[in-house]
Amino acid sequence: MADLPSGVSQRDVADLLGLSVSTVSRALSDNDRVSDLTKRAVRDAARTLAASRTAVSRDTAVTPARPMIGLINSGLSNDRSPQSLDVNFAEVLSGVEQACARAGHIPYPWQESWRLLTDEGNGFFSHVTGIITVGGVISPEVIDTVQRQGLPVVIVGAQYPGSGITSVGSDNTTGTLLAVRHLVAQGHSKIALINGPGATHTSHEKLAGYLLGLAEAGIPLQPELIRSRDGELSFDETAGDAMATQVLGLPEPPTAIICAFDQFVTGVYRAASRMGIAIPGDLSVVGFHDDDAARFAIPPVTTIHVRRTQWGETAVDLLLRLREPSAIRGTHTLIPVHLVERESTGPPRASPDGYRQQ
């Protein structure tokens, strides 16, 4: 088993990444049941925690010799379930660590629920020269708390227009546009979108790309083929299953589904299997992000590849620039995406009733 740095426990790593302690233990043991991504994330997290704790133990406040960048995972909450890797945060952490190493900085992760950040007496902010927050849904209270510190701030994976906060994320609109174009080229015209929470800017961007793709192909909009988790922040297979069951149960169901997150794909596959629908024979599926869930699914998922490590690297670069007097705040940097074609998509059945003919 690989050793953890002194002062860092398996529980520390598990809490930071949203994993169970047993999964961290298996990752350190190089267990085949754990993906390479998770193993790398565990190593990165352990190294980051060790470096930040060493710096904090030596310095009671930030000094020019040991500048630290605060890293907040907005996906951590008091009621989260540590069953699977927070892939979004893990890949961003890797990019942040690489960029910090080049710039001579140390990433300093906040390890508690983001809800506790509103307690400004925690001392976290006194150790950092800037803040990077990661996640598509961030509490307004947290944003207010961070902004009041007078520190430069960069949001990763989301944007808040009008807030004056600098941000970086993927070109989500182009992503869903590419997904629609791919399916149209296969011959599909009844294409559903299973989206994230309707209140987020990320979901709006993905919806915009979907609508652009339909308009470009001359396909009339069918509102019943669009589903989102309004009022809920779940991005897992249960949400994907529920939304897929709804659209696949329509009198005129879709022949293809675009998922706003790869986590939804597992639920779509489960719903399709339960309903006797073959993928891709009866139903084509496109994911978004290119996670392990997409690469190792059966069949492997055609998806939009997102470079989240580059999110982290870019966030550090932006944060360092924000410390300059002439810096322009409130910009949003788009990281390009591309479609990865695998085995979950194909032409629709020739029968006008599709899989209803079975």
UniProtKB/TrEMBL annotation:
<keyword id="KW-0804">Transcription</keyword>
<dbReference type="Pfam" id="PF00356">
    <property type="entry name" value="LacI"/>
</dbReference>
<dbReference type="InterPro" id="IPR046335">
    <property type="entry name" value="LacI/GalR-like_sensor"/>
</dbReference>
<dbReference type="InterPro" id="IPR000843">
    <property type="entry name" value="HTH_LacI"/>
</dbReference>
<dbReference type="Pfam" id="PF13377">
    <property type="entry name" value="Peripla_BP_3"/>
</dbReference>
<protein>
    <recommendedName>
        <fullName>HTH lacI-type domain-containing protein</fullName>
    </recommendedName>
</protein>
<feature type="domain" description="HTH lacI-type">
    <location>
        <begin position="8"/>
        <end position="49"/>
    </location>
</feature>
<dbReference type="GO" id="GO:0000976">
    <property type="term" value="F:transcription cis-regulatory region binding"/>
</dbReference>
<dbReference type="InterPro" id="IPR028082">
    <property type="entry name" value="Peripla_BP_I"/>
</dbReference>
<keyword id="KW-0238">DNA-binding</keyword>
<dbReference type="GO" id="GO:0003700">
    <property type="term" value="F:DNA-binding transcription factor activity"/>
</dbReference>
<dbReference type="InterPro" id="IPR010982">
    <property type="entry name" value="Lambda_DNA-bd_dom_sf"/>
</dbReference>
<keyword id="KW-0805">Transcription regulation</keyword>
